[in-house]
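tl;dr need the bound structure. longer version: we got a ligand (1-deoxynojirimycin) that a collaborator sent over and nobodys looked at where it sits. i said id run it. heres the input, straight from their email, havent touched it
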Amino acid sequence: MNNMNRTWWKESVVYQIYPRSFQDSNGDGVGDIPGIISRLDYLKQLGVDVIWLSPVYESPNDDNGYDISNYQSIMDEFGTLDDWEQLLAGLHSRGMKLIMDLVVNHSSDEHVWFAESRKSKDNPYRDYYIWRDGKDGREPNNWSSFFSGPAWELDERTGQYFLHLFSKKQPDLNWENETVRREVYDMMTWWLDKGIDGFRMDVINLISKVEGLPDAAGEGDYQFGGEYFMNGPRIHEFLQEMNREVLSKYDIMTVGETIGVTPDEAVKYVGEDRGELNMVFQFELMDIDSGPGGKWNIQPWTLPEFKRIMSKWQNELYGRGWNSLYLNNHDQPRMVSRFGNDGPYRKESAKMLATLLHTLQGTPYIYQGEELGMTNVRFDSIDQYRDIETLNMFNEYREAGHSVESIMASIYGKGRDNARTPMQWSAAPHGGFTTGTPWLTVNPNYTRINAEEAMNDPDSVFHYYRRLIELRKRHDVIVYGKYELLLEQDEQIYAYTRTLGDERLLVVLNFRETPVTFELPDSVPSGSAERLIGNYELQEGWNLQALPLRPYEAQVFKLN
Ligand code: NOJ
């Protein structure tokens, strides 16, 4: 197998829509499908090929749609199946594709399967979920939930506990049960037959749990039990079955969200001879600023470490599997606040990071608002936050005696609502997102940072993204070329080449606000160079032997 097997999904750029926050059309303060339809020309203008739609299914919204109560119907707040059909048609008629979010590690507790399951131990749906007796008056094991507290909930009706790796309104489905798998495959087929172009699979590497559900190691009440449910014993069997039964029958793309995978593990999911998935989202870069206390324990990150992680994935998947590339999404802080500069160099650093995203090997994923350089938000009070993960953590940390101030600092840095504040379309009230009251307050910087302003400014972050996407379509080397890191230990410059046959690109990025000079290492054959794109104009007479880089400067050259 080699990375030169050409496919449309390697050459595509994906744009993620978080529907709740994209565009409201009826003034209820919640984004909806007709709202998305009204923005299709904007997406077309940006030039993206594929839309990944975060969940739009019926849901009580304990976790904003990642808790699904009916997989084959649309959430009322978002519209109807008819609206959705129009969205699909609107995308297809513009030459764009649609991938849907597949959330099948768990359902909502309000799904009819769970409503039945909890009724009695001998209900036909009992075994759709993971039920166990308690142990010594406590949970069946010591696993913690991703959203604080234990991963088990006692259900009074039958006196047993059910497993929920996320909130207690998100019971885990029992993939050991063949009927559950059949139901999932039938549901997937139903969507595929409607003409969708693939799936993003939510925490798909958690669906196979180790038999016996052993206790996790460690002191204290509840422990992360990842070793017993990440990349579990039957995961590849399940995905190969899914591929055989469903995926292989369609020309689609799939991307699995896989927490904690290494490159070697990733290859098992995406190797082209494996018959599983096309790509996975890995988390290594997303963990770069987490300390020993986990995600909320924020630590400074360094550029050499950043480069080490990116390069590791570029090199280790080369010729073995396809990378997905992302710097933020609906679960992560805004990239410009985290890895760039959301103050005076917001635009420059957003473009610099965009240059990185679009010139590595892999399929780039843009998260809504990233193309405007949208930033993190700092609400004064916890009451303004909506995310269950954030709110649960706040309560847990308060009970453990942390100060409000220190908790808020973590939320400002890492909270998921940073990414979920509504799209900033214009300087109109609420950024033009809604005529009503938004479900989550719009970032007050919408008066400066918004799509209308960006569309009218030829030098905007938006137009830079558009040009990067165009560039990718013109140069195979961007998609398929081999990556080679330069200046590995440099604390400020990230530079690399991409090579395909005799075509070679050089990418030079300044990750700091201080100027610095780039010197082309001797190892890179230099002839003449042509500048392809950059976030500053180059000075007359520039050369790569000594190229002065301004704050957050990014330049891409074609070497001849
Ligand atoms: C990952 C999703 O991206 C996140 O938003 C969600 O909370 C969890 N999976 C649970 O579905």
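gonna send this back to them w/ a short note. The domain at 14-105+180-465 is CATH 3.20.20.80 (TIM Barrel).
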